[in-house]
Amino acid sequence: CYYDNEEDLYGSSGGGTCDTTAVSFSADVQPIINTNCVSCHAPGGQQESVPLTTYQEIKTYADNGKLIERTNNSSLPMPPTGLMVECNRDFLKAWVNAGAPNN
Predict the structure, then answer these.
(1) What number of other Cβ atoms are within 10 A of residue 56's Cβ?
(2) Which of 21, 35, 27, 11 is CA-nearest to residue 93?
């Protein structure tokens, strides 16, 4: 018995390329947040006090630095099951560095 880890199996980019040159909120960031964060960071979730369900909510945490800080903290990772694959974290960082546009 063993536990597969997506990053170990497919590398940091999940098997494809990790091109962060044209990151979009709707195409890249929101799906990452929906997959990795919303189960806890939504009404009724364990972390509903830190909502991440709308663009404005996510942008608030992007602007104050918490989004990148928490998703890259290996000693207290978000999601709590372990850090997201590196490519997803790179997409979030590129989006924040671009000013967190609503695109």
Answers:
(1) 9
(2) 21
